[in-house]
Amino acid sequence: MFNRHHPEPSGSSQTTFADIEAISARIAQTSSWLAPLKNELRKSIIGQDHLIERLLVGLLAGGHVLVEGLPGLAKTLTIKTIARAIDSDFRRIQFTPDMLPADIVGTELYNQRDTVFEVKKGPIFASIILADEINRAPAKVQSALLEAMQEKQVTIGETTFRLPGLFMVMATQNPIEQEGTYPLPEAQVDRFMLKVTITYPSRDEERRLLDLWDQTDAPVGIAPVAGPDAILASREVVNTIYIDEKIKDYIVALVCASRDPSSYGIGISSYIETGASPRATLNLKAAARCLAYLQGRGYVTPDDVKQTAFDVMRHRIRVSYEAEAESITSEDLIRNILDTIAVP
Q1: Which of 135, 162, 186, 235 is placed for a possible disulfide with 181 were both Cys, Cβ 3.0 to 4.6 Å?
Q2: CATH code of the domain occupying 1-30+240-344
Q3: What is the rounded CA–CA span in Å between residue 334 and residue 313?
Q4: Is 62 left (phi over 0), alpha (psi -120 to 50) or beta?
């Protein structure tokens, strides 16, 4: 018999225990790059374990990550270190109010010698992109980036170019300083698979950081320990990880409860202006599978869903003015939903 931590496949699914064991074996075969990658990251990054894990989820799911946190919390260092460790192209784009879409995607330049237009590709064609302070760029620039994120392609002139197979954007926002910013519209924020909030390190972590960074430069060099092919192979395995029908129903219930909480007996309707979109449903499924993969399991548990619920849904639930007046955040509403919806 299976238990809650090792779920029994439901009758409607043809997946058997042997199938799950086979998936777990494939995970063990394709995830050998994870341990060396984490070891490389620990050489220069202290703390931020949650951010690192969610960036790995983004890599495995082919999704993008929006990070909100104060300056100096190793956001840039983390994504740059990951790019080096997986031997991928990395570009940092510092967003400013005077940017143009061509600064992101590229443009056509006229070659006077050959009397032809030539394409000059922009920084978006790298595999790993850091979109620093994305809310400082005007709407046209934000749209150019987000269109590339969604379509995985860029059109310059009359030519369409595919972006790399391994392509992830980590965008950052400063949660406090809002002067001179252009907040992302809800429809554009929804394109980010995850929104991760990070805070200051603990006292012990900061003490370790003080010892590690004993020079003005990074403490050690980062060696490539994986390649894009290994990550793309892992993605194929992630898509096969088993999800029981009851857990699928649980995912749908969480998302639907954010839209119509009263039908689930949750008295928070007045605090919600709009609930989570269908992208939340799809991303909860994908993120839960990625967590299972990171833990070497061929099946998803309810805890996988609960652990990713905040990061998947916090930017997709828009709170009402009444909630703002009472200092109620989307995280408070998600917590209420998680505490109320029965866990399978």
Answers
A1: 135
A2: 1.10.8.80
A3: 8
A4: left
**What is the 3-class SS of the chain, one letter each residue?**
CCECCECCCCCCCCCCHHHHHHHHHHHHHHCCCHHHHHHHHHCCCCCCHHHHHHHHHHHHHCCCEEEECCCCCCHHHHHHHHHHHCCCCEEEEECCCCCCCHHHHEEEEEECCCCEEEEEECHHHCCEEEEECHHHCCHHHHHHHHHHHHHCEEEECCEEEECCCCCEEEEEECCCCCCCCCCCCHHHHCCCCEEEECCCCCHHHHHHHHHHCCCCCCCCCCCCCCCHHHHHHHHHHHCCCECCHHHHHHHHHHHHHHHCHHHHCCCCHHHEEECCCHHHHHHHHHHHHHHHHHCCCCECCHHHHHHHHHHHHCCCCEECHHHHHCCCCHHHHHHHHHHHCCCC
The tokens of 133 are what?
């302070």
Domain ranges in the chain? 1-30+240-344, 33-228
pLDDT along the chain (344 residues), means of 10: 45 70 92 89 83 92 90 83 89 88 86 80 90 84 82 84 90 70 75 90 84 62 86 94 95 95 91 92 96 95 95 93 92 94 91
Q: For all residues of the chain together, what is the average pLDDT?
A: 86
Burial string for 254-288 (b: 16+ CB within 10 Å, else e) reads bbbbbeebeebebebeebbeebbbebbbbbbbbbb
Fold of 33-228: Rossmann fold (3.40.50)
CA atoms of 30 and 231, how far apart (whole Å)? 8
User: How far is it, in rounded angstroms, from Cα 61 to Cα 293?
Assistant: 11
Structure tokens of 20? Answer: 């799950």
How far apart CA 333 and CA 336 sit, in angstroms, is 5
Contact yes or no for 196/50 (Cβ under 8 A): yes
